[in-house]
Amino acid sequence: MQVLDPDLLKTFLAFVDGGSLAQAASVVGRSPSAVTAQMQRLEEIVGEPLLVAQGRGRGLTPAGEDLVGHARRILAVHSEAWLALKGARAAGRVAIGTTQDFADSGLPELLRAFATSHPRVRIELRVGRSAELGEALQAGQLDLAIVMRKTPANDEVGLFSEPMLWLCSQKGLAVREEELPLALLDPYCGFREAALATLDAAGRRYRIAAGSASLAGLRTAVNAGIALTLRTARFAHSGIVEAPRELGLPPVPMAQFAIRLGQGAERPARDLAALLSDNLALPGLTS
């Protein structure tokens, strides 16, 4: 019996979650040709085709769809075993910085898993904005950080992408007007830059109807129906939903995020960075 290599399964799930081989290549840090070779190797092991031509891209065969659930379970058990063996005797502290989106969605579950496998490690958590967290990491105030990626950095140990979405109150906009009302974080914000650049390129008129220095303020403005905003699916809860198609909003790019590890980080921080790199991306999203 041949073994299902976890690296091959990670690449397979990167395709499933990203929707294309090119996106999978970006997520796993390999060339598109290397990703294609990995998928061919996985098909050889399984003994059946996993991908099929679908329009301009590729989709999953029935065997591919069956493999998705198995792959997620195999990688979850693999990660659990790896953490348990490495973390049982580890001690010390890990200072982690994250943006509010991940503090609300995804990170709590992974910190729980880390605390279970590293019971003697103290966690210090800092929530802030990407630029601030990057500066703190470089200053040695953080061991690792989850940030929105603006430019490549030498300390990146994990990359993943999630679709940006136009979001609004589930009750809709309070007032319909010719100019599109936007709620945006104060500069600098990658989502702000993407929203304005996209609307400018599309020739769509807009006005900044609400600004905030925090995601809590942004959420209040969007929930009130004052304006819509641009974030990821992590922000779409508690009364906030994807904006309806009738608004005719232009398509937006993927948001790219990085797990960055500080220079000289000790083993517990490296273990946590590996756990986040493998598991933080939202499953089941397509580009």
Question: How would you portray this structure in words?
Answer:
The protein has 287 residues and is of the alpha/beta class. It folds into three domains: 78 residues, Winged helix-like DNA-binding domain superfamily/Winged helix DNA-binding domain (Arc Repressor Mutant, subunit A, Orthogonal Bundle); 100 residues, 3-Layer(aba) Sandwich (D-Maltodextrin-Binding Protein, domain 2); 88 residues, Periplasmic binding protein-like II (D-Maltodextrin-Binding Protein, domain 2, 3-Layer(aba) Sandwich), CATH 3.40.190.10. Helices cover 43% and strands 24% of the residues. The protein has ten helices and twelve strands. The strands form four sheets. Strands 4-3-5-12-6 form a five-stranded mixed beta sheet, with helices on both faces. Helix 1 packs across helix 2 and helix 4 packs antiparallel against helix 10. The longest helix is centred in the N-terminal third of the chain and has 26 residues. The model has no long low-confidence stretch (mean pLDDT 90). Pfam families: HTH_1, LysR_substrate. This is LysR family transcriptional regulator. It comes from Mesorhizobium neociceri. Keywords: DNA-binding, Transcription, Transcription regulation.
CATH architecture of the largest domain: 3-Layer(aba) Sandwich
Average pLDDT, rounded to a whole number, is: 90
Provide the β-strand percentage band.
15-25%
Shape: globular
> How many separate structural domains?
3
Structure summary, number of beta strands = 12
CATH topology grouping of the largest domain: D-Maltodextrin-Binding Protein, domain 2
- Please name the fourth-level CATH homologous superfamily of the largest domain: Periplasmic binding protein-like II
Helix content: 40-55%
Can you identify the CATH class of the largest domain? Alpha Beta
DSSP helical segment count: 10
Organism: Mesorhizobium neociceri
Domain HTH lysR-type: 4-61
Protein name: LysR family transcriptional regulator
InterPro entries: LTTR (IPR050176), LysR_HTH_N (IPR000847), LysR_subst-bd (IPR005119), WH-like_DNA-bd_sf (IPR036388), WH_DNA-bd_sf (IPR036390)
